[in-house]
Amino acid sequence: MKLEFTICLEKAQKGDSEAQRELGCLYRMGLGVNKDEAQAAKWYQKAAKAKNTKAQFYLGRLYEEGLGIAKDEARAMQWYLKAAQGNQSLAEGLKANSTLTSINLNFNNISAEGAQALAEALKTNTALTSIDLSYDQIGSVGAQALAEALKTNTTLTSIDFLGNQIGPEGAQALAEALKTNTTLTSIGFCLNQIGLEGVQALAEALKTNTTLTSINLSDNEIHPESVRVLAEVLKTNTTLTSIDLVRNQIGPEGTQALAETLKINTTLTSIDLFGNKISAEGTQALAEALKTNTTLKSIDLKFNDIGSKGAQALAEALKNNIMLTSIDLKNNNINAEGAQALAEALKTNTTLTSIDLRDNYIRAKGAQALAEALKINIALTSINLECNYIDFKSAQALAEALKTNTTLTSINLGSNSFGSEGIQALTEVLKTNITLTSIGLERSSIDPEDAQALAETLKTNSTLTSINLDGNEISSEGVQALAKALKTNTTLTSINLSRNEISVEGAHALAEALKTNTTLTLITLDGNRISRSDDDDEGREALKHINIFCKRNEVLTQAVNLYALFLACFPTEAQDAYLHLKEVTTSSTQKPIVRFFQMAGKLPDDVLHGLAYHVYDQARDFIPPKAKASAANKLLKQLREEDSVNSKMKAK
User: Fold this and answer.
1) Cα 62 → chain centroid
2) For domain 2-71, which architecture applies?
3) Which end of the chain has fewer surrounding CB within 10 Å, N or C?
């Protein structure tokens, strides 16, 4: 968060109102900086004066509560009104808009009045396809107004009402709209207290609606009785492909009703039942359904206390199921026996690509069984075993499996206790493994010596793009070894080094490595000892340089992708340009951009102009002012020359 604060501060000081608002939030919550409500008020005021409606609302709240500023209810009301007026002005603008297709109004407190103005705009607007109204306090009155608009609107495909307390009345009104609306494909009702009446109304709408493919009913205190109503409708509905029922109160009884539906339903591909107290009983019913279901590809069962009996039932289903590709079993009290059963299933299952077993109790026996399965399995690409009491022998077994496994691209082994012996085994196998692109080793007690072994691996590994080392004991000594490896590594794009006791010396080593590394686009350094205070100039300077180089690499990566696109579409014209970029060094950051414009001059004018400006716009943030002016002049000169030549040719 410290790095995020530094970046935000720089943008805010340049007059960016959204950055000013965000900076106010960081000060108010004490994220990346000491909590300071007076500073929060100062930055909210700057953003509010620039007509940032979110900042106007937040400033009103500070005045109302007297936080960081003298309490003044009259001024609070003034800022609340300005925020509301801003939302109404936006609604007026949407009536005439013919180009904007997506708008995000979350946390804008537009209230029922703002929702009504927006509803009027949606009756005539023919361009908007997506709108997010999360946490806008529109209530049932606002929902009812928008429901009327949805009866006639013919372009909106997605709308989210997350956290608006629309209640049963709002849900019923929207359900009526869904009976006739023919364009909406996704709708979100999360955190809205819609109750049994709301669910019943929506279920009735789903009987006739033929366009909705995704519905989110999370956090609505939906009980088994409500689920039974919904489950009955899903037996005949033929368009819904995704349903989200997170953190309701479905229980074993409601799950059994859903399981019966899954035996018949032929369109659902994804269901999320996270946090519903399903237990082993409900899971056994689901497992039976999965033996015959032929459409479901993803199921989320985390935080459901399914235990090993539930895991064993699912394992039996996975031996027969030929459609499921992803299953999440995080935090389910699954022990070694449950993991062993799942491992047996993975030996023969040929469709599951992702399994999440975080925060269980699989321990050594379970991990070793899974390692044996990975030697045989030919489908799994991602496995998460974080926080499972895995010891060093289990880590060695998993490392042994990675020597022969040819499909796994992502593995997370964080928060386990396999020590240096386990780390050494994993780093050794990463020298030869050619499929793994992501590994999680967070909170694994990695010390400087372990980090040095990992650094040696990164010098030769040619596939790893992401590594998570958050919460270890690497310190600056270990980081310096990693930094040295990063000077030659050409594949890693992301590394998380948060909370590792890294000092400013370690940050300088990373910045030095990034002078030559052109692939790393994200280094996370939160919670270290790089910059302890706002006046720690040396630490802030090191973080600034790291951010600049990462931004440069991000743009270079995008430019490489653009060149690759040119290479596919215009092989002859783009070949030289692509090769130039691959060879570029960082001695002069504007060179790849200028070369791009020079070589791309051979492309058709419309492609040249559009993509040239696109790349240059992204490069402006990191190119030094003098170089920026130079690059801009060269760009304009190049484009003018091209235009001049084309004009002369057309004249002839």
Assistant:
1) 30
2) Alpha Horseshoe (1.25)
3) C
